[in-house]
Design goal:
The chain is an alpha+beta fold. It has five helices and 16 strands.
């Protein structure tokens, strides 16, 4: 879909969590011109103070190599779309010296830095899953609803033998993991700060290992061995944060285009006949599994819901990141400068 990639499996991805003022050309919007507080009448008053709303931050993004003119322009356009979707005010996005600068209110600084999330989304079949350090009582796995939406609610850490498939049980044939990948899965420590995961550079046609946050309030992430991408996030036509109703809390609702709906239906049909964990589909955002619901039937509705421990703001950030599409090239924050207001 366009999570850490954490519904009950939601990660911040971006987070993930996860995020994302209308602009045109090389940038639009203008700096806040909120008046400062006036001094006492009659002259000699204190100098005008700067309101919090007037303070500005400039966030600089760069790629691993200087961005080409076309790539930089498309990246800036996508970042503007994210800012617009999030309702960020007075944001200016500009291409400068092979990089991108984003200027906006200091109060929105976390949202400004979130505009640079890669937003690479994919749906991969789960070949093996192992809970790391889980101590909770196992809970039920989520299942797909009969209404044709994949529900990613409530995957909990599993400690029983049936919950964690041996990597050696992965199917043979095209895309099957080789010995090197099986060794990576065995050695993967998702509790470590630095851990391997799928990323924007990963080949969607190859199996990978990745980490994801377990549900049920556990702080210990699970590790996954995943098959090749079956549905690319480019096939998601829209994403929005909506009220989860009786299921509680906000959720992110994805809608597929015609091709994506067909591929998603085929994926869920093939998974529905398997036993756990190979009946699960991993939703991977920027290299992190943000959810891995089990599938009980073919889903033809062309819609998938991502549940998780979202706030309204984090759900909106995730929806904006996915809905705007992946950035043409990955970028990272290279500097943040705070300017005085005027």
């Amino acid at each position: 879909m366009r999570p850490p990639r954490a519904p009950q499996r939601a990660l911040l991805v971006c987070a993930a969590a996860v995020a994302l003022a209308a602009c045109s050309g090389s940038g639009s919007g203008s700096a806040d011109r909120s008046p400062g507080a006036l001094g006492a009448p009659g002259g000699g008053g204190a100098a005008p103070s700067v309101t919090a709303d007037a303070r500005r931050s400039v966030v600089t993004f760069a790629g691993a190599a200087p961005l080409g003119a076309g790539t930089a322009r498309r990246t800036a356009d996508r970042m503007r779309a994210r800012a617009r979707a999030l309702g960020l005010r007075d944001v200016r996005v500009e291409v400068r010296a092979g990089g991108i600068t984003v200027t906006g209110r200091t109060a929105d600084e976390s949202g400004l830095t979130g505009l640079g999330a890669s937003g690479r989304l994919g749906f991969r079949p789960v070949l093996a899953e192992e809970a790391s350090g889980a101590t909770e009582t196992p809970g039920p796995s989520p299942t797909a609803t009969s209404r044709g939406r994949a529900v990613t609610e409530g995957l909990r850490p599993r400690t029983d033998a049936s919950a964690s498939a041996s990597a050696g049980s992965a199917p043979a044939g095209s895309g099957a993991p080789d010995a090197a990948l099986l060794a990576r899965f065995a050695a993967l420590d998702c509790s470590a700060k630095e851990r391997p995961a799928t990323g924007p550079e990963s080949d969607a046609r190859e199996p990978v290992v990745a980490c994801g946050t377990a549900g049920g309030g556990s702080a210990s992430p699970d590790k996954f061995l995943l098959g090749p991408t079956a549905v690319d996030g480019a096939r998601v036509s829209s994403a929005e944060a909506v009220d989860g109703g009786q299921n509680g809390g906000p959720l992110v609702r994805l809608r597929f285009d015609t091709s994506g709906a067909r591929r998603f239906a085929a994926l869920t049909q093939s998974l529905s006949v398997n036993t756990a964990p190979r009946n699960q589909v991993a939703i991977v955002l920027d290299g992190v599994v943000i959810s891995a619901p089990s599938v009980a039937q073919r889903l033809d509705g062309g819609t998938a819901d991502i549940y998780g421990s979202f706030t309204r703001a984090s759900a909106e950030r995730l929806a904006a990141t996915i809905g705007s599409g992946a950035l043409p090239a990955p970028v990272s924050v290279t500097g943040v400068t705070r300017l005085p207001g005027t």
